[in-house]
Amino acid sequence: MTNVESVSAGTARPERVPIKSWIAVTAVALGTFLVVTVENLPMGLLTAIGGGLNVSDGEVGLMVTVSGLVAAVTAPLLPVAIRGLDRRVVLLGLILLALVANVVSAVTPNYAVLMVARLFVGVSIGGFWALAAGLGVRLVPEAYVAKATSLIFFGAMAANVIGVPAGTFVGELTSWRIAFGAVAAVALLLVIALAVLLPRMPATEPVRLRTLAEQLRTPAVRVGVIATFLLVAGHYGAFTFVSPILQDISGIDATYVGPLLLAYGVAGMIGNLIAGSWSGRNVRGTIIVVSIALAVILALLPFIGGNTISGSILLILWGFAFGGLPVSVQTWIIKAAPQGIEAATGLNTCMFNLAIALGALFGSLIVGLVTVSGVLWVAAGLVVLTSIVVWGTKRI
């Protein structure tokens, strides 16, 4: 019997981490920044793309849905497909794929070609995350793995605060096609940076299909995957409707929603860094405390978030709390599966993307049946279940 906390990042802190290790981690973080920007950019350009291709907003929205579902399928299967390939080469290939997909998106003659490009975007997203989320153990000494993982996830948080708004701004100033072209240019620069900064990373042990099944039979991995589903489904089920929540419950004018979401994103980045540090010392405690805090925030918003000030404060606290959870669960996965990180991370990434899609769908059904307050309470229930699941896993 092994305590999940005992499979830790080590107790002896090395005197110094080579600067090239942190540079490599930063390069991977830039990769997560890019793939999340590519994934979510259509949200900011939805109306412009629809008008340019003569399709509805709903059809443009499918760009995100399709890439997310493909990412969910790719994440567990890509580690199996690449077998013994150098992970550095695979990461470069995945960013190149995103580059090509964005070039095609920029010059697409019609909606059908654009959707084909988004299929390849999904492969890039799912594959990159399946490898990148667990690369901390390959790039820094054991005692710094949690910090490195936090930095890698920081890139994703920054994408929502900087990358997507910047791409949207470029699209508004010029056109949506130029916005996709600009992201492709960034991808080209990133390919060069990754080629220079990342060390060779030969496969340790090829991942096979049976490896995925073996990881699911590991209790702590199973708990981590379940925790991811509950947290992400709950969060996105509510966050999909954050604009009507702020306007209907807190009475916030629509013109202030954008700046508040920026503050939400900054809070999420801070929460990510703090939770990354905490989870390195006590990952179980971090997940329990932060998930309970998030559940309380969601549940109380309809009751005490009825004005501009309280609603704004609760939204920022929401961002702070959720920002710390993905990195904490990924740290749990790394500690629970030290000999099968790629397989376990692929499963976790798969569940993350599925939870986004299903959470948003579930939230839509609830809002249709009841109110936006109802979706907050259901989300709080799903999130608090996470703490219960993790609490019950003291030893594995």
Describe this structure in words.
This protein has 396 residues and is mainly alpha-helical. The chain folds into two domains: 207 residues, MFS general substrate transporter like domains (Growth Hormone, Chain: A), CATH 1.20.1250.20; 189 residues, Up-down Bundle (Growth Hormone, Chain: A), CATH 1.20.1250. 81% of the residues lie in helices and 0% in strands. It is built from 16 helices and no strands. Helix 3 crosses helix 5. The chain starts with 18 loop residues before the first helix and ends in a 5-residue tail after the last helix. 54% of the residues are buried. The N terminus is likely disordered.
Give descriptors for this structure.
single chain, 396 residues, mainly alpha, Growth Hormone, Chain: A, 2 domains, 0% strand, globular
H/E element sequence: HHHHHHHHHHHHHHHH
What fraction strand?
A: under 5%
Helix content: over 70%
N/C terminus separation: 6 Å
Counted by DSSP, the helix tally is 16
Summed up, the domain count is 2
The best one-word shape is globular
Strand element count: 0
- Structural class by sheet pairing and helices: mainly alpha
What is the CATH superfamily of the largest domain? Answer: MFS general substrate transporter like domains
The top-level CATH class of the largest domain is Mainly Alpha
CATH architecture of the largest domain: Up-down Bundle
Instruction: From the alpha carbons, calculate the radius of gyration and give it in angstroms.
Output: 20 Å
Low-confidence stretches: 1-12
Q: Give the mean pLDDT.
A: 86
Major pleated sheet: none
CATH topology-level name of the largest domain: Growth Hormone, Chain: A
